[in-house]
Each structure stands twice: as structure tokens, then as C-alpha cells.
Amino acid sequence: MTGLAILVLIPTTRGPLRLRSLNRRPGLPAPAAFADGDYRPLPWSPDYARLCAPGGPVARLGGDGGLPHELRLSGSFDAGRSWEVPVCLAHGLAARGHRFVAEPAQADLILWATGAVDLNLAVLPGDYALLDKIERSRALLAAAPEVPLAVLLPDGPEREPAAAAFRALGRTGAPHILPAGDVPAAVEALTRPGRATAPEPRCRTLRLALPVSAAAAVGLVALGGFIALGARQAPSVGAGNEPAALPASLAEIAAPSPPPVETPAAIRVEELRAPPGSSCRRVAFGAEPAERRPVAPEDGDRLAPTRLVPELCGVAIAAAPGLRLEIGPELRAAALPPVRLADGAQGYFLREAGRQNLVYAVQAQPEPGAALPGGRIIHALTR
What is the pLDDT of residue 193? Predict the structure, then answer.
């Protein structure tokens, strides 16, 4: 059994790094981390050596933890400890016979993980800028939307919005949220056989199948189970440790759009509101669908102002086919990273700290060969 081909992503606020390789190097005086193609250990390499030292955290994962390893990444980062969880997961997977690749198209599985660990490999809660890291990982993940995706999100203020953002990426199958308590539990969830006898990894022309059984609502189906299933199916909602009542993606939080309001350059702006008796928190976490109300044109390129009432959760913005939207920085700074709604509109859900008076512009630029002209609208959110 040759193991699965896994692309391990180490997200940073500048973009995701890729784990290129993890190999035993008995000749090294100590475990060391390198950037791809460089002979000089990275500045945080001594911390990696301590992580892998005899009796250290990595030793608890079994395998060849006592031998020096050479870790190679696509680049480096300035500071922080959020690389520890994905690197420990890689050691646990390598100890179980899996291998690593650097390109999404080569992977049987993409693993996105972040966080720091303690001596016992417990994942430390904290503010890991999850939403920012997800946004900067979007392009790389979009390169292979059909490859199964597993993510580990540490406990913290952005865990639930981050899980919702992952589900809204528009991948062929919903991501699998790994247990966030400790690294061994996550490795176990990734490698536990789904059947009594796990078959060999699939051939390169197939993709891992996704679980549909009710068991997916209370625990992750292991990779062995993914391989054992013969065809891709839609996964159960609430896999892993996510609440089973939540929908599979933020694309489902908005009801079907009413007929569009004609605005300059065919730009459509709608309010996203919490339904009566609900709240924006429930809407943002997918427990309720948002009500969508068109914003009417007012004068020239201006739309009627929208009041920042408690039930206003954000805005949805769309343009006619052939037009590319550019959203003003004022709205982007006040909102969570945009999500694609069911009808293709971009949903901007306001952060709590962003609920203040602001005016933003939306520019519609025609794509090459588009028949429609471009245009611009201005919209205000006011108390």
C-alpha cells in the first residue's frame, strides 16, 4: 500500500505555503526545516527541532519521530506558531504511510490546517486570523475544486464563521471539518479505516468519494472510507464536530432572489436581512436563510441609503453577465470575506465592528467582448 497523495497547506496571512517534502535524514545533527531549494535552515528551524526532539510532541505520533527529519516548504514566514498543527499532522500521516505532493492536481486529498500545540499535542485555542487565511487560500483551493478537502480549525472567535466560509467555497464536495481538540484525534479521523478491510488508494483517474451515511453526522468518515466508496456523492450535513442542523454552505443562507432592480450598468444591490424572530448571527452561521430586499435607485448613480438596523446582516451585489465587479474598500473592510450566494451574487456580511456609517462604490467593468457598457453606483449604510 503506497498511501494517499496529500497536499498539506500551511496558511499564513500572506498566502498559503505548501509542504513540499518530509523525509528522514539520519545525517542531520537535528531535525531542520528548509525553504524549497535552499540549503540554509529557516529561522524557526530550532523550534521545529524542539518539536521533534525525543520525548517531544511529535514523538507521541509514533513512526520515526526519533530520527532527524528534513522538512521542506515552498517558503517561510516571519513569526508565529500556527505552522505547528499542520507540520504535526504531516508527521502523523507520514508515520502511517502517506506521502506528500506539492500540486493540487496531484493530490488525493488537500489538508488545510493551522494552530499551535502544547506538549501533549493539544491544539491551543486562539485568534488565528482564520478568515483572512481562508481568503488568501481561495485561489489555490479553486485550482482543484474536485479534490476532497479536510480542514482543522482551532477553537477561537472565528472558528464557526471560518467553517461556514469553507462550506461556501463552491467545491464539488463539502469540506470535512476535523476534530480540533488535539492532533492525534485529527490524525485518527483522517486515517481510521471506514470498513473492516480498507482497499488500496484509488488510481489517479478517480477522486475520493464522500460519505452519505448517517454516521457522517456524528464523526468524520476516515480516508479509508472515502476510498472504499465507489462514486462521489453529496456528504451529510454536520460531518465531524459541526452542528448537524447547519446547512452545507453559506450559499444556502439566502432565499431565491426577487426580480432584479434595474440600476446603472446592470448592477444589482440587495439588503440581506434576518427574518422575523431570528438574528444576523443565526443567518451568518447558516441556521436561517436571509431575506433579500432590493435597494432602489435614488438619483443618478446613487442608490437609496440602507439603514443599519439590527436585522440588517449585509448586502448582496451582482452584475449582468459580461461585467466584472470591483467593490469599494470601505465595504470590504467592514464585512467578512465575500461568499458566493446561490444565484452567483457576492454576499458581504457585516462584522460587528463594521456596523457604522459608510459610503462605498461598486464599479462594473466589461469583460473583453462584452456587449454591455461598464458603470458605477454609490451606496450608503447609515444609522
Answer: 56
Q: Enter the C-alpha cell of residue 91.
A: 508527521
Contact yes or no for 24/60 (Cβ under 8 A): no
Supply 198's cell numbers: 480498507
Residue position matching grid coordinates 507521541: 60
Confidence (pLDDT) at 203: 42
Contact status, residue 285 vs residue 244, Cβ threshold 8 Å: no
Name the region of 115 (left: φ>0; alpha: ψ -120 to 50; beta: rest). left
The answer to whether the CB of 349 falls within 8 A of the CB of 368 is: no
In one-letter notation, the amino acid at residue 85 is V
**Rounded (10°) angle between helices 183-191 and 84-95:** 40
- 3-state helix, strand and coil shares in percent for the chain, rounded to the nearest 5: 25, 25, 50
pLDDT confidence of residue 44: 86
Regions of the chain with pLDDT less than 50: 1, 194-264
CA gap 190, 179 in Å, rounded: 10
- The x, y and z cell numbers of residue 115, run together, are 494552530
Amino acid at 232: R
- What local confidence, expressed as pLDDT, does residue 383 receive? 86
Task: Give the DSSP H/E element, type plus range, for residue 17.
Answer: strand 17-24
| Beta bridge pairs of residue 358 | 381
Q: What is the DSSP letter of 59?
A: G
CB burial of residue 186 (10 Å; 0-12, 13-18, 19+): buried
Task: State the pTM of this model.
Answer: 0.53
Quote the pLDDT of residue 66. Answer: 59
User: Using CA atoms, how far apart are residues 111 and 312, in angstroms rounded to an integer?
Assistant: 35
